[in-house]
Description:
Elements: H1 12-37, H2 67-99, H3 104-121, H4 128-137, H5 141-155, H6 166-172, H7 176-182, H8 197-211, H9 226-229, E1 238-243, E2 249-255, H10 258-271
Antiparallel strand pairs: 1-2
Amino acid sequence: MRTNKPNFAPSPTIAKLAARQRILKRRSWFQSHLNHAYPAAYNLSLPAVEASTSIKTSTPSHEILTFADHLVKIAEYQGKYRDTLQQLLGVTYSACIVFNDKSESVRAANKATLEEKCAALGIEGKSYYQLIVKLAFGKESKRASGFVHVIKAAQNQKPSVEPKDFIRWLNDNGGIQEVRKKLNSDGTEKMQSVRSPEEIMTERINKAKDSTLNACLTKIPYGQLPAIAKLGNESDGLAILRQQADGSVVIKLVLNDSKMVDSIYAALGRTLK
Length: 273
């Protein structure tokens, strides 16, 4: 007699677990190839697999993106653009280091290669730094000068920054713009010009005098007040005034002291913008 063997079909839970294992295995294979094909700075990675085994349908490629979708994409590309810019500047820095080889024959060959490429693209520059930078970042002179400044500042450090350490050095110093602000192209730190207290006071005095140059509240005829007559022509003095109960104003004292006059002008200049 022939007996039928029992049919043990896998449960839905086991089937889902098996499907998940296959997905993880395939994802691991793709991730290893991504890591091999692209530099680490791009930080390319596949999205994490959800704990749920439910199948999600991908968004159709023809779907119209909303403004919010574009903002998300801008945020995604901002980080990658910064990394890419730094990597490009790092490669350019390496090219500048390698260009200036100790061997005269190598330098001559490098010069011929550089000039040929620049001539084909219509690129001009005063130094090989500018030519190499313009090859990398475009012909705009002002932008190229900024990158040349950063490259020279790194190269003129003591000791010079190694090409493999350039991006780390750049970030340690605050990035491209901060390097331009803090360092000269010869690698030294820029001196912050600090004005002396005397210079600051002189500026305030002059500013206050200019603001009151044509001011005139009242005029007292010459000789009417002897104390005022002693000031001298075109001289400034201090007067202490008091208003009386009847509204009249009394000049109680006139001071002929240039230092005190300057201190009042300086106080006034401090309030002026």
